[in-house]
């Protein structure tokens, strides 16, 4: 899924948003613990017998930004793609999200793990760890006095979107050692791999993908929608005609081939996707 500039890439999904109240927002580097995978009593005993020390939670970095005022505000946890979180990306995310009136926490799953990118080979353990990172970010935000803990959503692009769908699936609840009473209010996934999601989701979800995406095909999402047959939480799938993978990333204005796949920015699809996202989050956060 992707390269340094490509598909699973950056979470540049809201940068085309034109927000009249958006200003340059100060970002604060914060650190929090990733939610660890829950270990059963048997595994714990065997580890002790082997003389292994208990595994400590990973420390993760993120970039926090908030709108002006005291709140409490709704918040968005944003998940980057396979090439990590660049300085420009996190600035764009902060400005766009705070411009909508929400607190933004852009999670950097790679910095403290010493990962440059994860674009060229499958990394199941990392995908699982990134779910824990997002849950750690959720817990961190829930403790801030200016955040409404009942109105926190997760939003990702490509690899990050796939992680968001996994978080919207019920299986993660028992997997991680995280507060049971704390969960994401909603999930937004830009061009994800829908096959990673359970057929019944536990939170309302918006999926946005291009018709001509030949990296993570829209057809897979359409088949997944048919299999789930409206079970579980509501899901809206929007397929943009004529749009390719990474349709919301302006860096691909001229189109680019990467690893045999075509990536191309589509201004009209990007604009409509931002409108869908704004409308969806507004409804979810008002409930």
From TrEMBL:
UniProt keyword terms in alphabetical order: Hydrolase, Signal
Keyword Cell cycle: no
Domain Dienelactone hydrolase: 60-282
Signal peptide: 1-26
Highest taxon of source: Bacteria
Entry annotated with the keyword Hydrolase: yes
GO MF entry, a single one: carboxylic ester hydrolase activity
PANTHER family hit by this protein: DIENELACTONE HYDROLASE DOMAIN-CONTAINING PROTEIN-RELATED (PTHR22946), POLYKETIDE TRANSFERASE AF380 (PTHR22946:SF9)
Protein name (database record): Dienelactone hydrolase family protein
Species whose genome carries this gene: Bradyrhizobium commune
